[in-house]
Amino acid sequence: MQIDLHTHSTRSDGTATPAELVAQAIEHGLDVVALTDHDTTDGWSEAAEAAGELGITLVRGMEISTTYDGRSVHLLGYLPDPTYPPLADELGRIRSGRDGRLPQMVQRLQAMGIEITEDDVRAAGAEGAVTGRPHVADALVAKGVVVDRDEAFETLLGPGAAAYVPRYATSLLDAIDLVRAAGGVSVVAHPWGRGRVLTPEVLTMLAERGLAGIEVDHQTHTAEQRALLGEIADELGLVATGSSDYHGTGKVDHDLGCNTTDPAQYARLVVAATRARQESGRPAPEVLEVAGP
């Protein structure tokens, strides 16, 4: 069984629609795929319809923008009730933070002599997408300012770069609490892909707080990091996942299924989500299992 628990569609910064992503997952030999767009569940319905028609198991999730100790941390939330008011309100605040910094980034780029507008950025994303820095990067690529998203982030849009503007994100601890209260489970995404703000000691604290798992196998983790994170997950009783972090053509070297989750670990995650749903009393979604077309 091939399981990929971290992907993005055009509802955030991926380049495939939710339905296209599901079809591509099947083409890549996946049996289970999770849709985890940034700070939104807008793609769930389309992905679920496609999964039912094409025959693949779908896990509905999201990747929440959070902070810990002043650093950006991404949290994967699986199967929470998207109508839970505190969670829905917080996701709205995060998305508003993205929209609020767009004019500032555009102004900074214009001050550098780069001819770019907010309309250019919005045109780079699909209709209804959560606008973010990747769309600014795509607009810069379209104008020939940079070669790809990586160059845009390294030279213009990353922390410390000339056009970088910080934005609102919820605290990591609060996000874990919100996902759990909404009947879902949380897994910290690529924890050592951007430095080690989440030390083994912090991961221990997060496990005590209610964290369900660690994304161990990720393209930004070295073999040594994967081995150590796997040991930490085992010691803390956390689920160890593996995922592609697929963004379509928006991110190279992250092909669907390039990293996968062991079926036994996936089964543990599903059990944890079932328990969280029951304990919360929320109408949280279950895994959408389908037998095929």
Describe this entry's structure for a reader.
The protein is α/β, with parallel strands linked by helices and 293 residues long. It is 43% helix and 14% strand. The chain contains ten helices and eight strands. α8 links the parallel β6 and β7 (213-217). The two termini are 18 Å apart.
Low-confidence stretches: none
Which overall shape is indicated by the principal axes computed on the Cα atoms? globular
The rounded Rg comes to 18 Å
Q: Kindly, what is the distance between the CA atoms of the first and last residues, rounded to a whole number of angstroms?
A: 18 Å
Number of strands: 8
Order of helices and strands: EHEHEEHHHHEHEHEHEH
Briefly note the structural class of the backbone. alpha/beta
| Average pLDDT rating | 95
- Sheet with most strands: 8 strands, mixed
Number of helical runs?
10
Oligomer: single chain
Strand fraction equals 5-15%
Share of residues in helices:
40-55%
Layout of strands and helices, then pairs:
Layout lengths: L2 E2 L13 H10 L4 E4 L8 H11 L2 E12 L2 E8 L6 H27 L6 H7 L8 H10 L6 H9 L12 E2 H10 L3 E4 L11 H10 L3 E5 L5 H14 L2 E4 L20 H18 L13
Parallel strand pairs: 1-2, 2-3, 3-5, 6-7, 7-8
Antiparallel strand pairs: 3-4, 4-6
Identify the notable features of this structure and list them briefly.
single chain, 293 residues, alpha/beta, eight-stranded mixed beta sheet, 10 helices, 43% helix
